[in-house]
């Protein structure tokens, strides 16, 4: 994933896994919280993202637990996943700073 731009859902899923392994529904709830309700991941989208992140070795299956007759798969962030997330956060912060710098220059120049 380091060679291509990370999608927002992938960024948020990795962020959701920073502090603890989570199962699918837990990831969905955490992404909703992280995005202040702006991103509502559907289960199909989530598992597509998790499959890609697993293929890139950014997340791994942590464990499986049966709860109320259903199997819950817990995923965790790998070290390479943490590095990829950090690199993407730095890239995004750079983009934000560039936009802010240009906006400050625009407003300082009297353009409105």
Explain this structure to me?
- The longest helix has 30 residues, at 79-108.
- A hairpin with a 2-residue loop joins strand 2 (59-67) and strand 3.
- It contains four helices and three strands, in the order H-E-H-H-E-E-H.
- Helices cover 56% and strands 17% of the residues.
- A three-stranded antiparallel β-sheet has the order 1-3-2.
- The mean pLDDT is 93.
- The chain has 112 residues and is an alpha+beta fold.
- The protein has helices spanning 8-16, 24-34, 43-55, 79-108, and strands at 22-23, 59-67, 70-77.
- The radius of gyration is 17 Å and the shape is elongated.
Number of helices: 4
Order of helices and strands: HEHHEEH
Annotation, overall tally of beta strands: 3
Shape field: elongated
Segments where pLDDT lies below 50 for 5+ residues? none
User: What is the share of helical residues?
Assistant: 55-70%
- Major sheet: 3 strands, antiparallel
Cα end-to-end separation: 39 Å
Secondary structure category:
alpha+beta
Rg estimate, integer Å: 17 Å
Q: Strand portion, in percent? A: 15-25%
Instruction: Let me know the average pLDDT.
Output: 93
Order the strands across the largest sheet as they lie in space: 1-3-2
